[in-house]
Amino acid sequence: MPSRGIVTVGGADRVSFLQGLVTQNVETLAADEARWSAFLTPQGKYLHDFFMFVGDGVLFLECEAERAQDLVDGLGRYRLRAQVELSVAAAEVFLLPGGGVERGKVRRGDGWCVFGDPRRGEDAARLVCLSSGAAVSVVANAEAARREWEGRRIRAGWMDGSRDLEVGRDLPAEAGMDLQGAIDWEKGCYLGQEITARVHYRGLLKRVLVPVRVEGEVRTGDVVEDGAGRKAGVLRSVVNGDEHWGLALLRRDAEALNVNGMTAEKVLAPWQQTN
Q1: pLDDT single digits (tens) 140-154
Q2: Are residues 69 and 143 in the same domain?
Q3: Comparing 20 with 142, which gets the higher pLDDT?
Q4: Which of 155, 190, 224 is a domain's end point?
Q5: Is the pTM of the predicted complex or chain greater than 0.90?
Q6: pLDDT tens digits along 79-119
Q7: Is 15 inside a domain boundary?
Q8: Average pLDDT over all residues of the chain
Q9: CA separation, residue 240 to residues 32, 147, 210, 211, 243 (Å)
Q10: Hey, how many other C-beta atoms are within 10 angstroms of the C-beta on 159?
């Protein structure tokens, strides 16, 4: 997964530092546990999401590789006098589509660790190689495997960072982060907490990121219209093959959808249907 990277958070104050900034409870994170979390603007808008787990004297944040330094810089603005060290690690991340590790659990070896993706809807795990000594076998046709996984991910309603949520504009709840355990409702204050809680408890959400099946080929950025010809949303991630799918951020009341004149259908993932 060349699109994924690792940020390390070290120092004596690493836990208390992150606890006051991110949506997840860092203080209760167990050594064998991985949790999904987010770093938001003070107004509760999406900046970064990542999978968080414990290392030897550090916390690991598995995040978007191209935006890893931006995450370091963003967190660093709040360091003040805290004893914290932030850096982008030289690590590689691999996908294990079949899982093999319990959801949200971490297993470790010499120079590597693997954790089960904590989200519901698919079975997958991430293998993180933290040193060049770890031996990894990769499938021969990685591109085809990556495309197959992309279809599974989209049908599962799983967002993929800034591909699916616009940085500084969209809300984490619009991608179901509140329903998929990325937000701890019992912890203390963090950046963006007030608006995040207000949206959740008052039912103020007007748009949601949902899987959409289209009868023809689609592209990222294609507009989704409703039956009245009004803009209902935009396709973010897409995958084309025997079927054509996309994740679309849509108005919740949008019906009778089409994309470029082609019939489109919302196909909610099971975890979206039960919340």
Answers
A1: 677 788 889 999 999
A2: yes
A3: 20
A4: 155
A5: yes
A6: 989 999 999 998 999 998 887 889 999 999 888 899 999 99
A7: yes
A8: 92
A9: 37, 9, 17, 13, 6
A10: 26
Domain assignment of residue 184, yes or no: no
Three-state SS at 7: strand
> Residue 83: what residue type?
Q
Whether pLDDT at 133 is above 60: no
- Round to whole Å and give the CA distance between 94 and 151: 17
HSE of 273 in the Cβ direction (CA atoms, 13 Å)?
Answer: 9
Q: Is residue 43 part of a domain?
A: yes
CATH number reported for the structural domain that contains residue 226 in this entry: 2.40.30.110
| CB-count burial class (<10 Å; 0-12, 13-18, 19+) for 164 | buried
Q: Encoding tokens for residue 37?
A: 């979390």
pLDDT of 15 reads: 96
pLDDT of residue 109: 87
Contact by Cβ (8 Å): 13, 82: yes
Contact of 105 with 83, CB cutoff 8 Å: no
Q: Are residue 129 and residue 243 in the same domain, yes or no?
A: no
Domain total in the chain: 2
- Tokens 């209760």, residue? 28
Question: Could you count the other beta carbons within 10 Å of the beta carbon of residue 1?
Answer: 16
Look-up of token digits 């975890």:
271
Q: Give the list of residues 6+ apart from residue 229 with CB closer than 8 angstroms, or none.
A: none
d(CA 226, CA 41): 31
Residue 85: burial class (beta carbons within 10 Å; 0-12, 13-18, 19+): middle
The domain in which residue 38 lies consists of 4-155
